[in-house]
Amino acid sequence: MVSKSPLNPVALVGQALFYGLFAVIIGYFSTSPAYRHLAPDMALIKLSYSHHGQPVTECRKRTAEELAKLAPNMRAPMACPRERSPVTVEIELDGKPLHKSVTPPSGLSRDGTSTTYQRFEVPAGEHTLSVKMNDSVRHEGYNYVREEKLVLKPAQIVVIDFSADKGGIFFAQ
Amino acid sequence: MSAIESVRLSGLALLQRVERFFDAFFGAAANPWRHLGALGFYFLWIALATGIYLFIVLDTGIEDIHTAIEYYTHQQWWLGGVIRSLHRYAADGLVLAMLLHLARELLYGRYHSFRWYSWITGVPVLWLVYASGIGGYWLVWDQLGLFSAVASAEWFDWLPIFSDPAARNFQPGILNDRFFSLLVFLHIGIPLLLLLALWVHIQRVSQSDVFPARALGFGTLGMLLALALVKPTVSHGKAELTHLPELLHIDWYYLFIHPLMYATSPAGLWALVGLATLLLLALPLLPHPRQAPLAVVNPPNCNGCRRCFVDCPYGAIAMAPHPDKPGHELARVIPELCASCGICAGACPSSTPFRSVDTLLTGIDMPQQPVGALREEMQRKIAALAGPVKIAVFGCDCAADARRLQGADTAVLNLMCTGLLPPSFVEYALRGGADGVLVSGCREGSCAYRFGTRWTEERLAGRREPHLRPTVPAERLRIHWADGHELSSLKAALEEFRQNLQSFGADEKRLRPYTPRRIAQHG
User: Fold this and answer.
1) Is residue A68 in some structural domain?
2) B219 by DSSP, 3-state: which?
3) Hey, is the C-beta of A22 within 8 angstroms of any chain B C-beta?
4) Distance of alpha carbon B445 from alpha carbon B99, whole angstroms
5) What is the full per-residue pLDDT of chain B (523 aa) written as tens digits?
6) DSSP state, A12?
7) Does B457 touch chain A (CB under 8 A)?
8) Contacts of A36 by beta carbon, 8 Å cutoff, 6+ apart
9) Among chain A residues, CA nearest to B213
10) Of A139, A135, A122, nearest to A44 (Cα)?
11) Are B252 and A29 in contact (CB < 8 Å)?
């Protein structure tokens, strides 16, 4: 470099002050101001599932003629449709509608999972949470229902999920 | 002048005042404003070094990491805690230095013409710095890390790239150590990509400023250490998948995108960052002044000395075997790298005006301001000077406008960059009738072409070739660096120099006059 740092006392004091200011700027914004993600006395309900809807039609038995047209290694006796039903979910909180959605199956052949992820900020306290789900176009109304009284603490998170192994709709909290 | 250009120039004038103010305390070499790129690299080196230590000592399991970090933060605060804090604050400093570096280059208008490459390759660096830093917060796996991970997942879920929402991973019973291994992999892999991107970013500048001056380095490290001791980095509580903390002490340098997303929407945040990225990428394509003609090599006058090759700030000169002289080399200009600054012409030993050839042709020259034309202009202007103290001023197009100093007793020769000035021109001016020579240009660190100021000062001080001969009396040479807004300072320096020269006797510290003897050049 061409120039050198000045070493006189005024310059050194000035440098110390500026390094101090630099430290204050780095240190302050590294943690401040504090961020409040949820308003006080609010809780969070998340709707999050990844679920294969039911096939849109029943499996049926192939006829002898149909089987004969297939290659020998492809002669499965049952023909099942690939396409899945969309998943409809309706949520009510304390008897009032909170959310309703219809999630189509993913994939070009509409044979993938229906997935969703939603957030709802609700007041903390006691609530009746009711969730209904339909995952079959062959079924009228809702084929899964869960209703529960919950006491939500401020900043608590409750996740509405679906698992066939866990008996359908469940609340993770 | 457009309104945007007017704002840019006003901002530049303000920035240059700030830089000059800091020069008084730090000197240009250690002035953080003038070395923001080097400072950014320095913060990265500190973050990498401390990160390697943390990777060695910390348990990297989802259940263990928080406990391990708490141990090093509180029990072993004097080593592990300090290193953790250094890692965190260096990462914050990197963002600060990077954003200021970007703003500074923008204000100086350094984003188009030959600089397009450095500008464009800097854009991915922004993304990689943020990706590296945000991933680091997840690794701590405290409430803040979980919040950041969920917010980031919710942001990316807006893109149709995941079959299952990524945010679903942060539910009770789903996370395991494999996820944590992925985080560690990302927090090592992305910084490695960042290093690669930075290497690409500085490819077109020679002698890259990747380490700050020693004084600035020690000062910055001391500042980080003091901060680490006064305000040690601490974690939030352990991550809980079913509970959010009321208040999050977020690091605004990196995590500001999360509050921004919740204040708008994931789509809104994508629109903002996408627009900002596109704007940065499009800047070099916007209308801007056409680049001046490039340097041209004149083979009969190039002896392959390599001085232009060494001094070019952008690596735009290569040395090739001479086609006619076995064992000799010839300079070759790489057009896409050339900045048209003329520093190469100032470095060429053939640029000396004392050559007796009638038409002065040098080894490498600028078509828009050939050295031969400069010699003729200087002779003409100095011959026309009148008054008791005649001064020749060499100015710079990018600095304070020296042409405003032109007068009956002052001959001004403005150069594209002061670095174009062959030092022998100073002696030639003094022996040709000038009582003194004032050399001006951008302040150190402000030079539009990086090294114009530095090389000129070193050449005039005899520390760099081609050098000014020591027989030139130092009292008759004055160097005064002045940025664009500092014309008054340049005027004052000229007046003070004139008064100083007036105090000398008629023959005191004066070189013998030189009478040009011209011969016709062959070939």
Assistant:
1) no
2) helix
3) yes
4) 18
5) 688 889 999 999 999 999 999 999 999 889 999 999 999 999 999 999 999 999 998 887 777 888 999 999 999 999 999 999 999 999 999 999 999 999 999 999 999 989 999 999 999 999 999 999 999 999 999 999 999 999 999 999 999 888 888 898 888 777 788 888 888 899 999 999 999 999 999 999 988 989 999 999 999 999 999 999 999 999 999 998 888 888 999 999 999 999 999 999 999 999 999 999 999 999 999 888 888 999 999 999 999 999 999 999 999 999 999 888 888 999 999 999 999 999 999 999 999 999 988 899 999 999 999 999 999 999 999 999 999 999 999 999 999 999 999 999 999 999 999 999 999 999 999 999 999 999 999 998 889 999 999 999 999 999 999 999 999 999 999 999 999 889 999 999 999 999 999 998 777 888 888 877 766 655 4
6) H
7) yes
8) B246, B247, B248
9) A1
10) A122
11) yes
What residues make up the domain containing A111? 42-56+84-172
Q: Does B245 touch chain A (CB under 8 A)?
A: yes
Name chain A contacts of B154, Cβ cutoff 8 Å. 117, 119
How far A74 CA sits from the closest chain B CA (Å)? Answer: 29
Shared domain check, A20 and A47: no
Both A31 and A110 in one domain: the answer is: no
Using the beta-carbon criterion (under 8 Å), do B24 and A173 form an inter-chain contact? no
- Which residues between 61 and 120 in chain A have a beta carbon less than 8 angstroms from any beta carbon of chain B? 106, 112-113, 115-117, 119
Q: Which amino acid is at B118?
A: S
Quick one: how far is CA A88 from the chain centroid?
A: 15
- Tell me the C-alpha to C-alpha distance, in Å, between residue A41 and each of A96, B247, B307, B330, B382: 20, 13, 72, 77, 83
* Residues A92/A98, Cβ–Cβ less than 8 Å: yes
Residue B336 DSSP SS3: helix
Identify the closest residue of chain B to A10 by CA–CA distance.
B25
**Minimal Cβ distance to B245: which of A31, A117, A155:** A155
> Is residue A93 domain-resident?
yes
Instruction: Indicate if A46 and A31 belong to the same structural domain.
Output: no
Quote the ipTM score.
0.88
Q: Are residues A12 and A31 in the same domain?
A: yes
The strand pairing partners of B295, in sequence order, are none
Q: Is A20 in Cβ contact with B167 (below 8 Å)?
A: no
Give the rounded distance of the alpha carbon of B36 from its chain centre.
7
Q: Where are the domains of chain B?
A: 3-285, 296-502
Closest to B401 measured CA to CA, from B455, B440, B346: B440
B29/A116 CB distance under 8 A? no
**Total domain count for chain A?**
2
The DSSP string of A133-161 is EE--TTSSS-SEEEEEEEEEPTTBEEEEE
A74 occurs within a structural domain? no
Which two tokens mark B295? Answer: 């340097």
Asked whether the beta carbons of residue A2 and residue B444 sit closer than 8 angstroms, the reply is yes
Structure tokens at A93: 């909180």
Residues 6+ apart with CB under 8 A from A37: B147, B244, B248, B259, B262
Best CATH choice for the domain B3-285 from the list 3.20.20.70, 1.20.810.10, 2.60.40.3880, 3.40.140.10: 1.20.810.10
We report the CATH number of the domain holding residue A97 as 2.60.40
A165 and A100 belong to one structural domain: yes
Residues A48 and A113 in one domain: yes
Q: How many CB atoms lie within 10 A of CB A16?
A: 14
Asked if residue A146 belongs to a domain, the reply is: yes
